[in-house]
Amino acid sequence: MTKQLTGRTIFITGSGGVLGSTYVRRMLEQGARVVATDLPGHRAEALQAAHAGNEAFRFYDLDVGDEAQVTEIFKRVLADGWEPNVVLNNAAITGEMLMGAGKPFPDFADTSVADFERTLRTNLTGAFMVARQMDRDIVGRWPAALINVASMYALNGAHHPIYDGMPFKNFSAYGVTKAGIHGLTVWLAGYWAPRGATVNTIAPGAVFNNHSEEFQRRVGELIMLNRMAKPDEIADAMLFLCSAGAGYMTGQLVNVDGGFSAW
Ligand SMILES: NC(=O)c1ccc[n+]([C@@H]2O[C@H](COP(=O)([O-])OP(=O)(O)OC[C@H]3O[C@@H](n4cnc5c(N)ncnc54)[C@H](O)[C@@H]3O)[C@@H](O)[C@H]2O)c1
User: Fold this and answer.
1) CA–CA gap between residue 215 and residue 12 (Å, rounded)
2) Are strands 86-89 and 57-61 parallel, antiparallel or unpaired?
3) Which residues line ligand 1 (CB under 6 A)?
4) Is 4 contained in some domain?
């Protein structure tokens, strides 16, 4: 039986994270070839170890905020013989990442321009640079799809009280960049349509990653289905967007948030 992603060569940024690593596993199971990229470090190493020896998996170091690296990345992949037809702008500076790095979450009044701009650089300028390089190296040469990753906190504000007393918060630059990325989607959708490329946004809801029972309860009250998502539940929608079955979708924002955005 043909698998859902047979014939797809999927390029993904930030692939070693909670969701990225789930996407990679599920994509490989569904017959895709996966070009995984991430910053060097423990996430990247764990991902490479998990898929070592799988001929459908390749890994490249990539900092999406580094213009020189982004300019070269598809040329390197093409020179190695694979032609990506799906690209995922998944990398982001997230609360999980800041927490893992031991970074405090300052109040809004104490947020530095440097931290705000660092988030813009990765989450928004990085996504723009990857899309621009896709335009240069892929779009128009073969049918292709770009999927930008937003968040339930893109077009809805964060519910600040649920973070009271928690070791992490939602930070302003995050929501700003996640709102902005859908602007890139709708701008590019019409621009690329004549050249046979689609662009969509996925907006995941709150994904469970060892959060406390108290946090799960608080966030659950904001969600129609009354619970956080499992990474595989976000992957189910992501795999569809990566598949040929999504070929007539472009310029869309797909919420996978248990009903958070629909109250
Ligand atoms: N987990 C959630 O609850 C949730 C909810 C909504 C949206 N999202 C979005 O889904 C995507 C994946 O989230 P996640 O939960 O896996 O996050 P994560 O923090 O576990 O992973 C993010 C990944 O991005 C990488 N990254 C950070 N800066 C980078 C850079 N400059 N260049 C390349 N890679 C870089 C990190 O190394 C990491 O592997 C993100 O865009 C995130 O904003 C996540």
Assistant:
1) 30
2) unpaired
3) 13-14, 16-20, 38-39, 43, 62-65, 90-94, 96-97, 122, 126, 149, 151-152, 204, 206-207
4) no
Q: What is the dihedral of CA 146, 126, 61, 72, to 10 degrees?
A: 80
In the chain, the amino acid numbered 40 is P
Residue 159 pLDDT:
93
Cα–Cα separations (whole angstroms), residue 160 to 102, 164, 165 = 21, 7, 11
Domain annotation covers residue 3:
no
206 occurs within a structural domain: yes
Helix or strand holding residue 53 (H, E): none
Please report the pLDDT score of residue 101 as a whole number.
74
Q: How far is the CA of 18 from the centre of ligand 1 (A)?
A: 7
Domain CATH for 188: 3.40.50.720
**Residues of the domain holding 232:** 9-262
Structure tokens at 77: 């992949």
Residue 1 lies in a domain: no
Contacts of 8 (CB under 8 A, 6+ apart): 27, 31, 32, 33, 85, 86, 242, 243, 244
> Does the pTM of the predicted model rise above 0.90?
yes
Question: If we measure between CA atoms, which residue out of 148, 155, 152 comes closest to residue 198?
Answer: 148
Report the domain count for the chain: 1
- List pLDDT tens digits, range 68-84: 999 999 999 999 999 99
